[in-house]
Amino acid sequence: MSAHSYDPGIAPNGVFWTVPIPEESIDVHLGAGAAVLDATNIPLFDAFTVANSFSQAFHRVPGVISLHMEWSGITKTLQVSDPTDQFAGHFLENTATIEVSTTTPPTGTLHGFDFTSDAGSTSISHFAQVGHDHNGAFFPG
């Protein structure tokens, strides 16, 4: 089990493990099956374990995460339409790379923690996908 579990917490509406990303951090070229996510200093918490991430009754330590992800190289296309579940989309399978760094500053009796991954070029991509979907009220059906 990991000694760190980073996430932005649980929103008042119950949504968890999500955080808004500034629009300028995302660059998508769907026709080419390419996208870049370059997010810097996104605030989150170190919950120390995944189980703690689901609980509001534990000590959280604020931190930040920065990540750079790239998707490219179309290997397969997929068109989906499911009127029963009101879901449709056009998806492009490809490969992806990621670089990530995160920091929990020293606080109280804790010494802080820094992590930096290897370069994105060392990533091994087993599955990646970019696409565009319509669901619910946005379903084109």
In short:
The chain is mainly β. The chain has one domain (6-138).
Radius of gyration equals 18 Å
Low-confidence stretches: none
Main sheet overview = 7 strands, antiparallel
Tell me, briefly, the overall form: globular
User: What oligomeric assembly is this protein in?
Assistant: single chain
β-strand percent reads: over 45%
The helix/strand class is: mainly beta
Helical amount among residues, as a percent range?
A: under 10%
Distance between the termini: 45 Å
Number of helices: 1
What does this structure look like?
The chain has 141 residues and is mainly beta. It has one domain (6-138). Helices cover 3% and strands 50% of the residues. The protein is built from 1 helix and 7 strands. Strands 1, 2, 3, 4, 5, 6 and 7 form a 7-stranded antiparallel β-sheet that branches. A hairpin with a 4-residue loop joins strand 2 (26-29) and strand 3. It is globular and about 55 Å long.
